[in-house]
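[agent] plan:
  1. take the single chain provided in the ticket
  2. run structure prediction with default settings
  3. attach structure tokens to the ticket
  4. add a short note for the reviewer (M.T.)
[agent] executing step 1
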Amino acid sequence: MGRAALVEMQNADEARTIIYEIRNSPFMISSMPRPVRARPAVVGMFDDRPRKPDRTIMCYWLKSNDPDFEVATKMKRIVRNHAKEANFLLKRQLEEEEQLAIEQS
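[agent] step 2 finished; step 3 output follows
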């Protein structure tokens, strides 16, 4: 589970409104308040975001005889495994929270 998130809004007014709402209303999951904080981003808070103007992401298809094909295939498998593990852990955590809510009620 992530502990922090960068949320970009369309304009500064929307960002101020969201920050105000989060600070003044409890965030609830399964009828239990969760501690959530919101604050506006400042320069230097995120080293790699927003993306630097000179940095570009290039996407292209690799052929099976390309030397990087095997590396890309391994990375793809690892990403899938990580996604499955994260999904399993999230489901497990939700089950534990539901059991806790039942016990507390």
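[agent] step 4 note for reviewer: The helical segments are 12-24, 69-104.
[agent] ticket updated
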